[in-house]
Amino acid sequence: MSFRKFLSMLNPWNAFKAIFGFIQVVILKINPVRLLETLLKICLLSLITIILYSHQLEINKIKPEVGTLDNIPYDAFAQVEIGIKINSPEESFEFGSTGSGILVDYANGVSTIITADHVCNPPPLDKWYALVGRENIEKKITLKTFYGHEVEGEVVLNDSNYDLCLIRAEVEWSTPVRISAAPPALGEKVFNIAAPTGFFYPGVVPILEGRYSGDIGYNQDYDSIHTVYTKRGSSGSGVLNHRGEIVGIIHSAIGDLEHLGISSTWYEVNDFMLTYEILFY
User: Fold this and answer.
1) How do residues 41-90 score in pLDDT, each as one tens digit?
2) Which of 30, 42, 160, 240 lies 20 to 30 Å from 13 when distance is taken between CA atoms?
3) CATH 2.40.10.120 residue ranges in the chain?
4) Which contacts of 66-70 are long-range, i.e. CB under 8 A and separated by 24 or more positions?
């Protein structure tokens, strides 16, 4: 091969024609429609990959939600049943109430639960005390533990203004729940272990959740509002923070607003339990 011919082969124009000819041959052998479909599939898969990756990055930024079953003391729940028998001169009859409660103390084989005072002392009771006298009224308190064990109890302390009551019984079934060291913050997530409408079965109790929405009242008589489902039977149930500590005790519902619960304030519960400690320790 002569040097001149070799240089002609290195001519850029000849090189371009050779490459273009090769591309033409390739294009003629490849189906353009199939090539387009392949390119679209590649683009679609790439887009899906990018979307999934970006979503995963966002998920990784989400902090685990506080308040899990590991620190909600559901097994400290107790259902409270009060049976009242009136022995009047005219006739005898019975009535009662059912509510919820939560274990707050245990010592020497004796458990103490906190509940609402109107569960311990149903409102008509005061009227009948005045009409027939205490000696003609029989009251039986039955506690059903989370595990279904039934035991009789007795009231050891109550406060009608705070609507709080303590019941003692010779039984042990769980670890007592502490009172929180501070009130809940506005908007803080709370949990409620209760038996609305009396719904409770050994080993099964509703665990509800909502938000602390502030206090309402006047003249130092305040109640706390929580966005938790509340019905008859919820009274006396504990409202807990994410550490599983008591910040209130449910005592009322609001008519048609079943997803709002009214409880004693943290200040009332704390003051009530301080009185209990002074009297019994």
Assistant:
1) 888 888 888 887 777 776 666 555 554 545 789 999 999 999 888 887 77
2) 30
3) 74-280
4) 66/189, 66/242, 67/189, 67/191, 67/209, 67/242, 69/207
- What is the DSSP-derived secondary structure letter of residue 277? H
Q: Which residues of 239-251 are buried (b: 16+ CB within 10 A; e: fewer)?
A: bbbbebbbbbbbb
Phi-psi sector, 255: left (phi>0), alpha (psi -120 to 50), beta: left
Task: Determine phi and psi for 100, rounding to 5 degrees.
Answer: -115, 165
Return the structure tokens found at 261. 């619960």
Domain 74-280 is of which CATH architecture?
Answer: Beta Barrel (2.40)
Q: Which of 185, 256, 189, 194 is nearest to 227 (CA)?
A: 189
| pTM for this predicted structure | 0.74
CA gap 92, 136 in Å, rounded: 10
Q: Which residues of 123-148 are buried (b: 16+ CB within 10 A; e: fewer)?
A: eebeebeeeeeeeebebebbbbbbee
Give per-residue pLDDT as tens, 156-200.
999 999 999 999 999 998 999 999 999 999 999 999 999 999 999
Helical segments of 201-248, H only: none
